[in-house]
Amino acid sequence: MAELPGCCRPCATCLLCLYSCRWIGAKKEKRQGLRTTKCDCSWFLFLFCVFLFTLVWLYFAIVILNDFHNFNEFIFKQRKLWLDWSLVLLIATAVLITYSAVLLVLALCLQLCGQPLKLHWVHKSLLIITALVVAAAFTGLGIKWAEEWRSARISLQATGPFLHLGIVGGMTLLAWPLASFFYRSRNTGLKVFLLLVYCAVMIAVYLAPLVITSPCIMEENQLPPKPALVGHRGAPMLAPENTLMSLHKAVGCDVQVFETDVMVSADGVPFLMHDEKLIRTTNVQAVFPERASLNSTAFNWTDLQQLDAGSWFLERRPFSTVQSLSAGDRNQASKQKIPSLEEVLEAAKQSNISIMFDLRPENHTDYQSFVNATLDAILQSGIPLQQVLWLPDGFREQVKQQVPGVQQVYGRKRLQNEKEPLLHVNLPYQDMSSEEIRQYRQDNISVNLYVVNQPWLFSVLWCAGVSSVTTNACQVLKEMKHPIWLLPSSTYLMIWIVADCVSFLMILWAFLLVNCLQWLCSFSLLSPESETDVLLTKINSLMQE
């Protein structure tokens, strides 16, 4: 089998060493008669599938980064261990994708050089392990975090047009080794099969934009207003969550609503706390070690005031932004205490910011007394009632009667037989499609979606027309003056047609050029032998004369 020009023997030998774990010269490999068998082709196909598998997982890993703080909190509740598991995920994924990608590149280079694809058993074992690890990751994602599949579908609205261009480019580059194999192989059936499969895939890829939809494919003048920002427990990337410092940082990020969670102490004082236990966000284990495992509502207000609600933020660094805090912010964070609802309402009134909260835990036997204590705090604070957004479903009718000015926010979609129209809904961003968001907007229903941290997700929801988003990253989304991308449909159509045409021409060029190179290689190998035969014939004739 002839080598293509430019594929030197040392390079081929090095490629063989890395792929086959054999330090044998390419020329010696040929003398030994080693050829690519059907089994070797099967392992190459397996390698290609594993690469695609890990590539898809890498995409998922990037998508779920938006929600990974929830996973960190879940692990802490289960194991009492705080770690930014997103770094572990990304590092492990990068190792797997790099390994499979390097092997694939080696295989393609060997094919272009005309060398056998003898994958070593060590690589075979590692590829099987890689496939099993990624399969386990997908299985775990489907069982424990099924809503992320919906996140992936939403992400395609942000990445679909660019993924299409990337796939077109990758499949176009694949034409070179395919053409090399096509002209070298003597198995006609296999050649025809691979060529038909490749053509079918390319046709599907070329026509993929017919099913690609995105709310960001629109004219500039159709873009809805930028969604308002709702601070998820304040500004948790800049200050300890559910503290007065977090509220003030959120105000500095132009947040219009401070979203929080309210609990009621054993002596009837509403205070801010998300978790049922105090372990994650306070030093309760140091102050009250024997009571640390009790629920937050089991402590009276005097006990709660003794706890430090800020130092954990500096020690555990729940977000990477903690490292960039100024010395003044660090000092302020270390002095944070658990705030009462009364203090927060007063701060919200002075900052002219609305407050939206859940009342926890909803399954508590004294939940009605919790509602009463919370309503009393709201009425005594003097805050304008329209600045209060009420989320809890329990005793909602009672709340409407006692404080009719409070805005009612529902954690569900509207029903067909709705007795009174919904004005505000608060839902996970996975639960509403772009079409539903547009319909609610047309019906003057305010839609708030949570939790939105990544600019790509914020851009998709912005283009869809959502009213507001709850976010941990208010300092990031505040700076966005425009969606990441916005394409008129006519521009996207032009990009689509040009990309497909260029790809088609490059594939034709690849097959023609490889055919020419094969012909040149054959000619260069045959012509010296022909000249030698002629010379020997002449010498023999002269000797006979």
Automatic annotation (TrEMBL):
One of its GO terms (biological process) is lipid metabolic process. This is GDPD2 inositolphosphodiesterase. Coiled coil: none annotated. The chain crosses the membrane at residues 41-65, 85-113, 125-143, 163-183, 192-212, 489-514. InterPro entries: GP_PDE_dom (IPR030395), PLC-like_Pdiesterase_TIM-brl (IPR017946). It comes from Casuarius casuarius (Southern cassowary). Residues 227-481 form the GP-PDE domain. The gene is Gdpd2. The keyword ATP-binding does not apply. One of its GO terms (molecular function) is glycerophosphodiester phosphodiesterase activity. It is found in: Membrane. It holds the Pfam family GDPD. Belongs to the glycerophosphoryl diester phosphodiesterase family.
